[in-house]
Amino acid sequence: MVASASRRRAWRCTRFPAALAALCMVLLLAALGAGAALAGERPVRIGSKNFNESYLLAEMAAQLLEESGIAVERRFGLGGTLICYQALTAGEIDLYIEYTGTLSQAILDLPLDADLSALRAAVAPDGLRLLEPLGFNNTYALVVRRRQAQALQLAAIGDLAAHPELNIVVSHEFLQRDDGWPGLARLYGLPAQVSGIEHGLAYQALQDGAIDVTDAYSTDGEVKRYDLAVLADDRGYFPSYLAVPVVRADLPVAALEPLALLGGRFDDASMQALNAQVVFEQRSFAEVANAFLVDQGLVGARDLAGAEWQALRDNTLQHLKLTGVALLAAVLVGVGLSLLVFRRPGLSRSLLYASGLLQTIPSIALLALMIPLFGIGVTPAIVALFLYSLLPILRNTVTALTNLDPTLLRVAVAMGMSDAQQLRWVYLPLSLPSMLAGIRTAAVISIGTATLAAFIGAGGLGDPIVTGLALNDVGLILQGAVPAAVLAVLTELVFELVERLLLPGHLRAAGS
Amino acid sequence: MSAPPQHCVEFRRVSKAFGGPPVLDDVSLQLPAGLTTAVVGESGSGKTTLLQLVNAVLRPDSGDVLVNGEPIPTGDLVAFRRRIGYAVQGAGLFPHLRNCENVELLARLDGWPLAERRARCLALLEQMGLDPEIAERYPFSLSGGQQQRLGLCRALMLKPDLLLLDEPFSAVDPITRAGLYETFRRVQNRDGVSTLLVTHDMREAVRLAEHLVILRNGAVLQSAATGEVLDRPADPYVQTLVKEQL
Q1: Residue in chain B lying closest to A504 (CA)
Q2: pLDDT over 80 (residue A501)
Q3: Average of pLDDT values for A180-184?
Q4: Which of A128-132, A375-379, B56-60 has the weakest average pLDDT?
Q5: A408 CB within 8 Å of a chain B CB
Q6: Chain B residues with CB within 8 Å of chain A CB
């Protein structure tokens, strides 16, 4: 009886520091992982916007580089034009595929008819270069059913003027844009008044015959899928949106050669077909890109069987890295701050109030707010997650520290314990249950919130979710959402275990 | 300084206030070494303040407190306080530490080897009439009386020169209390540690202490050997107390 009691005791004596060390170790490894990734040979980082065509072209660029033995990091699905361009100038990515019209209008503020040499001159001061355009023009277009186009002999936009009976319905955005319907109607003598429709519904309405003409992007996969005819813009109303790789001027020459292979390799129809393969045949970007490049004789065929598992593993590790580093920092700062302020009620209240305010900022907005400060990628995501994790840890720790039994604290002083000993033997262990509960809450919140980090190019399990949202592909969304949920559950279990190891039974509060 | 000191605690014209009327007003006292002194007073009499001035949890506004003939050091109080055992009402045991860890904590901080401190702890448990089986349990599993006994073990762990007891017997039922008195007296008779006991209970004071200090409204009414207080109360209030305990 006595022997077994002392064995139990001995085990507890060793397991307290051991469990604590294990917890720190896990967090530290995550941090080291982040550090190692930064320190090693830098791969070429390829960005993409978060729509189908941008993903597909970026994946082709990636495969071409990999075929030449160049390491690549895919930072796909960045949330918008400005984020991509900013990431490029800030050196967060090395290249992405942009459109000439977008460059001149949205980014460089040049006239719409600026030609390629003007664009090249304009991006040079930003330390960027434009490679050869890929050959297709993804601009606005008006589309009609092919059968009707043949029957009415519609080939160009001007031909519509002779057929006022056609029901023209365009997207709301197109209806209102300066370079949209009003100018188009004036130039080609079309009826000024048409009605608007949600773009996502337009293709179906067109196929059903509910409408006859609508606006589209000229390389949309739907154009091929629904067998639509694109009416020629023979008077050159729409600006050119030629796809062109934008790269950093410091990109090594070895990387430029494989990228140059993409120049002039596409036309509108082939791009439509490639887009359609992803959207309607539910094939992965990697698969479609590889099939095309093999067909063109540019790369060898890839066995993509294990690719999804590889992606799952990479995304999960990245996700753990983001949340782990942020959580470790939040624990250190949160507990440290708590210890500094808990004896001053006014200061504690202000601090809790401030961190509570941070928590009220919607996560996606907080991530966006980080961009001007930290650019895109891992750093702003970790900072945002860190700020998010701070409140639960801070609140629980301060509350616990300020509500300790005053008799115990008086005894600790009167017994002759130094300040450090009081901290180690009284304050911290007595606050530990509440502190752990706060860390646990922060960890689970972080794992959920980190899925949004993909919008600013930090990767993780948000990657497939963002891509899936762009493609309306539920399967892909689940590839991110399910592992994230599993991670959250596992985290709960790990903390349950840590609490079991660190806390004697009677101190394990059922609710916290 | 005369050595060895005759007085375990000496107050020289000590006053203490907390922003209002003085809680202790010009108190001078000499408490005999090697004996148990009970400071008796109702709540608000200043008796707990007096106790906390001895282990420097509080500092006097004016006057001097001497412990074992020496003034209280101004710098490092940790070593000073470790020479003074301390037990309080409700025991004040740390709930996250096992019973033996509670008792051994200071010895552990002082770097005692495990075997040595464990042996001392088990000896104390036995002296205080506690089953060694409880060593591995946590305080929450003990009765109120057992917790108080354990609190006394903790206070005695480092073999202190002086023991401060802040109403340690008040929160337990009368039968348990009788057992505690018995144990305490037995330990005191054997070891003779100078002890300062604060209590509102004259009966308890008379039973446990050789010397009494009667405190009222921050002033000492009488400080004398227990027999003398009983025979010659110096004040009508003291007389009332003496009568009540009979």
Answers
A1: B96
A2: yes
A3: 87
A4: A375-379
A5: yes
A6: 52, 55, 57, 77-84, 86, 88, 90, 92, 94-98, 100, 105-106, 109, 132-133, 135-136, 138, 140, 154, 164
Distance CA A473, CA A463 (A): 13
Would you state the pLDDT for residue A354? 87
The verdict on A410 touching B (C-beta cutoff 8 Å) is yes
The arithmetic mean of pLDDT across residues B25-30, rounded, is 90
The residue with tokens 């700020």 is A387
Q: Do B84 and A416 touch (CB under 8 A)?
A: yes
Residues of B in contact with A502 (CB under 8 A): none
> SS in 3 state form for chain B?
CCCCCCEEEEEEEEEEECCCCEEEEEEEEEEECCCEEEEECCCCCCHHHHHHHHCCCCCCCEEEEEECCEECCCCCHHHHHHCEEEEECCCCCCCCCCHHHHHHHHHHHCCCCHHHHHHHHHHHHHHCCCCHHHHHCCHHHCCHHHHHHHHHHHHHCCCCCEEEEECCCCCCCHHHHHHHHHHHHHHHHHHCCEEEEEECCHHHHHHHCCEEEEEECCEEEEEEEHHHHHHCCCCHHHHHHHHHHC
Tell me, what amino acid is at A336? G
**Distance in Å, alpha carbon of A319 to nearest chain B alpha carbon:** 35
Given a contact cutoff of 8 angstroms between Cβ atoms, the answer to whether B73 and B124 are in contact is no
Query: Considering chain B, what percentage of its residues have pLDDT values greater than 90?
Result: 52
| Backbone dihedral region for residue B7 (phi beyond 0: left; psi -120 to 50: alpha; all else: beta) | beta
Contact A6 B132 (CB under 8 A): no
Q: Is A6 on the interface with B (CB under 8 A)?
A: yes
- Across the interface, whether the CB atoms of A426 and B90 are under 8 A apart is answered no
* CA nearest to A221, candidates A173, A148, A273, A150: A273
Q: Do B133 and A407 touch (CB under 8 A)?
A: no
Residue A5: pLDDT over 80:
no
pLDDT for residue A26: 55
Mean pLDDT of A197-209: 85
Strand-pairing partners, residue B17, are B22
| pLDDT, tens only, A38-68 | 444 679 999 998 888 999 999 999 999 999 9
pLDDT score, position A13: 43
pLDDT of residue A17: 52
Distance of residue B228 Cα from the nearest chain A Cα, in angstroms: 32
Low-confidence winner among A47-51, A279-283, A291-295, A440-444 (lowest mean pLDDT)? A279-283
